[in-house]
Amino acid sequence: MENYSRAQVLEQPSVCPFTNLSADTPEVRVKDGSKIRNLLRFALSRMEADARRAEEEGEEEGSRGGPEEAAGRPLCRQIVFSASGKAVSKAITCAEIMKRRLKNLHQLTKLTYSKVLEVWEPLEAAAGLDSLTVNRNLPAIWILLSKEQLDSAQPGYQAPGRYDALWAQAAGKEEGGGATGQRAGQRRKRGGGGGRGKGSGRPVGRSREPGKGQT
């Protein structure tokens, strides 16, 4: 493709795989250049009363207009995050932060593909090359977070996590590692005097005494 330049890119987003969603369920479309702070501000303002109050009081400066304008709307019971390509990891990060901020959230994840159409034109028209059309499939993800119970039999369902038990287990591992590190430090401390450093057993050099004939 060294003799071509990309002239046009058309993306056909995948269709939402979740059915029977209420009409007021917001969809947060995560892009590669989106800021997680702005995405979470909008999502939390739609599902959390405290975030809505902070938004209305102007504690955080939000963007005006467009889909991020959530003031005056009722709180939602569900929210959807969607992303494709490089933005998939960013959508997963937003969902994990939401689950830690709002407890007892049920999650349903679906993996799909979105089609991307690329048109490549030759760099030199006199070279006799034809334009090329390339079709690519990008991995896409759809994450549904709900305060209501979802169908646990569906693939991709995750029940609300017990974060207290998770952090307790992690803390126990850290304490065990700390004790091991302390014992190793004690061993190093006991054997620290055997090196080349200045120790108490090192002989002291002879003092210079005046020789014969010197005053």
Give the proportion of residues in helices. Answer: 25-40%
Q: pLDDT average, as an integer? A: 76
Strand runs, count: 6
Tally of helical runs: 4
What does this structure look like?
Residues 206-215 have a biased composition (Basic and acidic residues). This protein has 215 residues and is α+β, with helices and mostly antiparallel strands. It has one domain (4-167): Alba-like domain (Translation Initiation Factor IF3, 2-Layer Sandwich), CATH 3.30.110.20. 29% of the residues lie in helices and 25% in strands. It contains four helices and six strands; from the N terminus they run ββααβαβββα. Strands 1, 2, 3, 4, 5 and 6 form a six-stranded mixed beta sheet that branches. Helix 1 crosses helix 2 (49-57) and helix 1 (36-47) crosses helix 3 (88-101). The longest helix is centred in the last third of the chain and has 28 residues, at 163-190. The protein is elongated and about 65 Å long. The chain starts with a strand and ends in a 25-residue tail after the last helix.
